[in-house]
Amino acid sequence: MPVDVHLHITCPYTNELIRNVLEEENGLFTLTNSSNSTNNDILYWLEYEEIDFDTLFRQARDSNNNKKVLANSYCIRKGLIRKANFAMFIQKYLAKKPDAILRNHYPETHVLDLCHPDYLEEALNEAFELRDALEENIQGKNEPIPFILKASILDKASELCIFQTQLELEEYFTTKYNEEEDEDDDDEGNSIANVREWIVQRYIKNPKLLSTYQNRKFHLRVYVVAERNLRIYVYDGILALFASLSYDESDDQSFDRLRHITNTCAQIDTKLQEDDLVKEFFTLEELNDDIRSNIFEQIKLILNDIFTGLHNEVTIFQPLKNAFEIYGFDFLIDETNQVYFLEANAYPDFRQTGNSLSILIKELFQNIVQQIILPYFGYEQSKKDLQRQLHLVYDKQKII
């Protein structure tokens, strides 16, 4: 019998690609909008809020149930996708494993617990190492260290600030709070008044720059697929996302977003076209094969180290044997070709890939269907000649 598919992803770009890939499988999947119970196996490919996790948990526990259910998201993964939770996990992990790979591939990070600008002094006293670094920046004995502020639960480059002193940080928060108080906005979802947890990371001032692309800063968007409990794959269809303007290290103080922020959604009011902002990493000719391979190997090692630590942290990351999930991991490369992990995002925005590289996303979904979904439901993989592949980087049952 075919698998009943409940498909609803809000983004039309993503929803259509998933639908097309499932329909290629010669009737193995039947798309349905019905909630009526059938004897067919079920694939849920839905927005997180629409997944019935209670049903998923019951099915996972019932070994006598012959009906298979698979969903496209884990329930608990805040230790990975919330920046403050991840930073605290890393602090704990590195205390246990001081020689772990992540020590050299995750920027120095501090967590600020801040409910209002008036309490910034208290928050910095808790994050005393950050406070001391900001004081040293004022003293001028060494070259000032810039830091970047990020909201723990906001995405799409929301509320970013580069600063070097406590005063600059105070001015940022005060200005933002005053602006929001003056605005009559019914949408409070992205209000910083609702954000209590922030992270502050040492800003990487020496990013890799490519003259072919006008020395514009870029970061890598890497798609990572978690399967059941627990295997991790990295997709070699990696994106390079470019800023709109050439990078200028001396621009730290004015913080021109179009020079420093590489998220595609942040590139507004720019004359550059989609093809100038989004490239496939393995086609960047200015990076030779050896450099690209070295960068990819670093990414694999970083991912292995992250999930080696996370798979035991069941209160903040809890894989399910009847689920899989796609994450968008962001990495930055410095001028020495060292790779830094920045953050992970659930339900990544595939639209940023654009139309010209949509095949990259389609092949990602094709790989997931072939390597994860079909085997789960007992079907053989169909023979597809895909240019891009998933690479196993972590398996809880064995060392890769």
TrEMBL record:
GO cellular component: P-body
PROSITE patterns: TTL
The protein's name in its UniProt record: Tubulin-tyrosine ligase
